[in-house]
Amino acid sequence: MKISKEVKTGLLVVSGIILFIFGFNYLKGKNLFESTNIYYTQFDYNALNKSSPITVNGNVVGKIQDIVYNYDSGKTTVSFEVNEALKFSKNSTVKMYETGLMGGNGLAILISSEGEPAKAGDTLQSRVELGLVSTLSKSFSGISDNLDATLQSTDTLMVSINKLINDNSEVGLKRTIEELNHTLKSFKSTSNSVNTVISNNDKNITQILEKFKTISTDLSVLTADLKNAHIGNTVESLNTTLNKLNTILATIDKGDGTLGKLLKDESVYNNLEGATLQLEQLLQDMKLNPKRYVHFSLFGKKAKQYDAEGNEVKSQN
Prior knowledge:
about 325 residues; alpha/beta; 7-stranded mixed β-barrel; two-stranded antiparallel sheet
């Protein structure tokens, strides 16, 4: 089938018109192949333009379609379109906010899932968020007022201080400053004296520090020796010995054993006392009558005999 030149020309013109429409809308940020829904909201004043973004959680989801002033209500009606995939309820709020420090505003949809789902053409409630620039302006305005009051108070304080400094009386601040100056001079003189003493005794101080270092070293060695001396074992052995000694003393105190009987039994003491007395008497008798115990005969003479009372016993032969 042969197509005439007129048909080709018409198709070319229609294609150009379609491309022009598509390109024009693309440059405006509108995608003809994307399905969108249009919603409305109202503000008491207008601070928007058609290039202002529509965002959800910081993400651009649409754009403003038109801004119209209503002469009857005195409000500004803003129509905006968003992707139809975005779902929210009629209780959602459209917030106008500042997009940056350099100015410019945008709309943010505060999505709410409560209530009836919103449909295309519904009007959503709106509110205006106080911007960062406005907040800073108000804050700086308050700071400026406070700073002005502070400067006035400072000026009054400086005037009062100048009056005190210029006071020539004995109680004036000038006299106090002079006394403080003398005190600082005295302190400086004392500091110089101390520095001189330290400088003159630098060698002595060094020797004292060296001796202290030596003493510290010796003390450290002594501590190490005591640590290695096993004092714990020595104390434990001494404790065992003392326990045994206490046991022996307790036995003696009870009168058990030979030593205990000697200390506790009176009969042993009496026997020892009697034996000592008899021994004393025996020695006394040997001293007075040695012939009774020692006999010496050169020619074999028979020794004399004595009885228990010391009388000579005559022989019967």
